[in-house]
Amino acid sequence: MITRKNLVHGIGLLIMAVLPLAAEAAGEPFLTTVASRVLIYALVAVSLDLILGFGAMVSFGHGAFFGIGAYVVGILTHHSYEATAIAFLPGDWTGTTAALIQWPMAMLVAGVFALIIGAMCLRTTGVYFIMITLAFAQMLYFFMTSLPTYGGQDGLNLWERSTLPFLDMYDDTQFYYVTCALLVAFMAFARRLVRSRFGMVLRGCKQNETRMAALGFPVYRYKLAAFVIAGMGAGLAGALAANHTEFVGPGLMHWTRSGEIMIMVILGGMGTIFGPVLGAATLLMMEETLSGFTEHWMVFLGPFLVFVVLFARRGLYGWLVGTEADDGG
Amino acid sequence: MTLVLFLEQTLNGLQQGVMLFLMAAGLTLVFGIMHMINLAHGSLYMVGAYVAASVTLASGNFALGVLAAMAAAGITGMVVELIAFRRLYDRDHLDQVLATFGVILTFNEATKIIWGPQALFLSTPEILSSTLELIPGAPYPAYRLFIIAIGLIVGLGLRHLILNTRLGMLIRAGATHREMVGAMGVNIDRLFTIVFGIGAMLAGLAGAMAGPMLAIEVGMGEKILILTFVVIIIGGIGSVRGALVGAILVGLVDTYGRAFLPFILRSLMEPSAADSIGAAVSSVAIYLLMAMVLMWRPRGLFQAYGD
Fold first, then answer.
1. How many structural domains compose chain A?
2. How many helices (H) and strands (E) does chain B have?
3. CB contact under 8 A, B109 and A296
4. Is the pTM of this model over 0.90?
5. CATH assignment of the domain containing A60
6. Domains, chain B
7. N- or C-end of chain A: fewer Cβ atoms within 10 A?
8. Which of chain B's residues have a Cβ under 8 Å away from the Cβ of A296?
9. A248-278 confidence digits (pLDDT tens)
10. Which domain covers residue A162, as residue numbers?
11. Which residues of A touch B295 (CB under 8 A)?
């Protein structure tokens, strides 16, 4: 059925599908690289929206899991390149560059961290939750900054991108489509998740947590599971980001990064699957364009942000789609 | 590890704690009364530091610089409150976080435009640049003692303000029942602006006093802001007493960790590993402290007036 919403989704997916071809045709192939970056941030924004928009958990530390994912790839590649054993793991494994091992590991490690951090943070609510997630992310940031083994403040160069069978990750178009496929897969997964029983409980918690608890749902466990899933999504995005920039640094975990990801979600529209993608695209494009005019582009971005929060509550997606926006699709 | 070193580090920790208290007091008051989480509090600290540096360098008088910094931060805070923040009091915390994040970006960039990207440096005022031998055998910088003294005076002053004055009564009442205070005929909007101004002024004071000890640069506000968050989470958001206890705790734990942890680890492992692990662990010590406090008391050590 052609509704306004399906139309928006269709056009969005179409743009994602043909963008590298269009960029090639327009003679601006570097746009593909820019678009890959957009999709990576879209992935991390969608993962944040799972807890922020659907679960009302205002996590201000999502950048931490993004950074962890990137560091997993960075560290594995570093050891593989130098052929040294990973000191903190038993045995003498020297890492790998195979994406099929690296990326799931990035998700796994990010998920384990999300489990530990989430288990502590979810004991608190409201403003405590915001601040404690922020503080834990900063803790990881400072930890990586002061750990000289993996580059400390300077970060790690990724000497080799992850390798996938049959694909060349150094080819910008192929890299784009790999990213695109992972994003679409994650969005499809997120869409199923929020419409499942699990998602319904999560959305119920958003509306009234006490009532969900009174109905007999183990609210804490549901929220923690969502937190871990979101962390894993961010970890995957981090793994891609490490490959995209061929560099891993503590800056990926800095709290302004978490702030930016949060802005993407709000700008695009919280509590929707498509919104964060729109938000990521808009914010990064604004950054790209404004920084072309003036190095002080933040001076425009800041007030714009305040304005969006004060006056445009439903985000771009709500504005495009109208009244159908709020059904978890 | 001698007793002298320990006492010296204790003074360092106290001094850091006092600085954090100046920041935390304002932030916690604003949260306790307006239920507003203000990320831009660090920007007011930055404004304080920059104005203090500029005025001191121009006039050669540090005291004048500090006063100017307090005035500038206070006024900036009240203006931002009037324009933007008062619309946010009834919004949820997410909106407040995002809007104040936007304000941070604006302030940082505006500061870069006005003062340039290079860091400013301010030397310690001459009267305070000597050392005092408070602990026998360990001369201690007078300036740091001065900061501790100022912090204690501000703490006592705030206590007096909140417990013994009419304004303090309104603040306490506003934290518990703000609608009621409004209904009793108090101009609640003006009260909020004043409270915000007080918090901003304290942040400006902290920034001005940090000037001679740090590089004055864009982004300095965020560094201390996160520490301030840790402080008020530990102390209990909204409680000024909690802010004081939390600030001293964080100051001491951070300083002890950095000073002694590498030493302790050196007796357990080889020196180079001890130094790098010591540095990494001590940089996260306060976050571990926060996690432990929250395990024990999820709402912080002290209850706020409003709860």
1. 1
2. 12, 2
3. yes
4. no
5. 1.10.3470
6. 3-296 (1.10.3470)
7. N
8. 109, 112-113
9. 999 899 888 898 899 899 888 888 999 999 9
10. 4-326
11. 120, 123
